[in-house]
Amino acid sequence: DTELWKQVFQELIQEVKPRHKWTLTEDKDLLPNSLEPGWSQYQQWAFARFQCSLCSRSWASSQVQVVFHMHKTRGKPRGNVKMRVFAQRCQKCHQSPFEVPEFTKENISRILNNLVFRILKKCYREGFKSMEEIPTIREITLEGPHDSNNCEACLQGFCAQSG
């Protein structure tokens, strides 16, 4: 649900840049490492759950790729972030659609906190060199290899797990 992402992003960016106007929009065509001039990228692998819309099977993955492209308007207190979450599809269903993952609010906060750190660093030249990325919480221990055949990011060649 992009609304939750937008809401949490606004809360976090307002804490660090109270009078600046930033927008977060979803862009399903966003491609990793394909940046418009003046834009920066932040990419994170996160834990999330999926549910198949055909058979209702659910599964979890810690290799869900979330990509952000960010840009601050020069000399103005505003900026834009575009976001894409890569989907996965069910292993069991033939011709299953790519499903968008569900993240916990806690993990959304962690991912967006990391994004805001990155915005401070890249767009404002602020922040500390030693700022560590906060990992997302894995609610369960996952067994087995990453299922590259059913990972949208792998199939498009953007997944770290696809070698």
Structural class: alpha+beta
Report the sheet-strand fraction.
25-35%
Give the count of structural domains.
1
The overall pLDDT average reads: 91
Output the helix-strand order: HEEEEHH
The strand count comes to: 4
The number of helical segments is: 3
Helix content: 10-25%
Major pleated sheet: 4 strands, mixed
State the shape: elongated
Gyration radius, to the nearest Å? Answer: 16 Å
Distance between the termini: 30 Å
How are strands sequenced across the largest beta sheet? 1-4-3-2
Stretches with pLDDT under 50, minimum 5 residues: none
In short:
The chain is 24% helix and 25% strand. The chain is an alpha+beta fold and 163 residues long.
List keywords for this structure.
alpha+beta, 163 residues, 3 helices, elongated, 24% helix, single chain, four-stranded mixed sheet
Task: Kindly describe this structure.
By secondary structure, the protein is an alpha+beta fold. The protein has one domain. The chain has 3 helices and 4 strands. The chain has helices at residues 2-16, 105-124, 152-155, and strands at 21-26, 40-51, 58-72, 78-85. Strands 1-4-3-2 form a 4-stranded mixed sheet, covered by helices on one side.
Structural topology:
Layout: H1 2-16, E1 21-26, E2 40-51, E3 58-72, E4 78-85, H2 105-124, H3 152-155
Parallel strand pairs: 1-4
Antiparallel strand pairs: 2-3, 3-4
Helix pairs in contact: 1-2
